[in-house]
Amino acid sequence: MAAFVRVSGPPNSSFLVGYPGISATLPRIEGKVEIRPSQGYSMPVAVSLVRICLQRRETIHPAAENVAKRHLGTPRRDTIDVVGKELLLFRCQAGKEAESVIAMDLPFVLFIPFGRGGEETNRRIPPASLQLPSRTAETLYELVVTVQQGASTQNKYTFPIPLQRYDTLSTFGMYNRPESKVVTADNLVTLGISLPKWSYGPCDPITVYIKLAPNADWANKAKRVTIQKITLAIEEEITYNPEGDEPTKKVNRIAKHTQQVQARLPEAGYVTNLGLVFPSKDLRDSEGIVKRGKPGFPQYEVNSFTTTSTLYKIEFYLSIKAQMSSARDITLRQPIVICPMDQQACKEEMEAIEQAAKDASHVDPNNPMLPARSIVVASDKDALRHLGLCMVGGQKKPLIE
């Protein structure tokens, strides 16, 4: 007989404890597997073995956004990996084919890798859950419970679980160091930029300090240079199949700001600041209601963010282009990090991350303290009591205490 299987998290909290991507918080999934009869409230279930694991399912289909290419292009490609280790929660006694069970509660803790195990796939920090428009790329996590019932029957039950990454928060000090870069196209004019920080979220302002300077060795030629306009743009670069033989790239320009200059290049150089706001996605509909999201995918205020998976990679660049006459145009691309949370949300998370790190210091990954498991077999004296039933005159009746 098939079993009814459910996975529940700790009371009044999420499955996910800690912050994936931040090793000090020991990110983990806590909960318990509940097994009950599925047909007939009190018919025992034969259970031989119970296992649980966290599974990552990735798919890419670059042609999906075009109706014609969707049918004529390459088919959808997917991959499935186990994140971390699979846990054995229950095995019946040796010599028995199965245990006849009325109710079973099996607590578990699945530790999410945090990048200290080398380059093995199952020990890397898992990328965040994400679904791009038209499902061109997708990362989905599921808790998979395997229940072996006797020698021949094995059933798998999947439960989608959203997973976010917290190592790109714009409030971390590593992202608040200024970045600078200088390029030239023909040794006549150099384009230099300076970024005060390089991690941004939805609606965060991005400001770039820009300097166009003439080459002192070519002063006479540089005097004839006229700066026509300077363009600042944010580009999203998606690489499909980055680790394969034929990676393909797609660049989307998601925001642009142009400053008209129309001036000669001064001897001291031309200095300006350009800025724009990173676009956000409104989660509310026309009536101001936030609709329920898809199970397994967090509701982000951005369409995509910086992430690296097995089948795809998303990177962001600031593109600065200076268009001039009497000199070649100069284009500079500076990588930036896009976080799914804005500056204020990142600040609010910092205190919770510190507390999670303190709590994690009391957890032993090799021997986590788990509640005792509860297994009620059919031969137990008060087995029916656990299902809210009792025997009255040889018949099963609801238990009234």
Note the beta-strand portion: over 45%
The low-confidence parts are none
Give the CATH topology of the largest domain: Immunoglobulin-like
Indicate the percent of residues in helices.
under 10%
Q: Which shape, going by the Cα principal axes?
A: elongated
Organism: Cytospora chrysosperma
Protein name: Arrestin C-terminal-like domain-containing protein
InterPro entries: Arrestin_C-like, Cytokinesis_Signaling_Reg, Ig_E-set
Pfam family, one: Arrestin_C
In short:
By secondary structure, the chain is mainly β.
Could you walk me through the main structural features you see in this protein, from its secondary elements to its overall organization?
The chain is mostly beta strands. The protein has two domains: 3-167 and 352-398, Immunoglobulin-like; 173-340, Immunoglobulin-like (Sandwich), CATH 2.60.40. It is 7% helix and 46% strand. It is built from three helices and 23 strands. It has helices spanning 67-72, 219-223, 343-360; strands at residues 3-8, 16-17, 28-37, 45-47, 49-60, 77-91, 99-111, 130-131, 137-149, 153-160, 179-184, 189-195, 199-200, 205-214, 226-240, 248-264, 270-277, 307-308, 312-325, 330-338, 374-377, 389-392, 395-398. It is elongated, with a radius of gyration of 29 Å. This is Arrestin C-terminal-like domain-containing protein. Residues 185-343 form the Arrestin C-terminal-like domain. One of its GO terms (cellular component) is division septum.
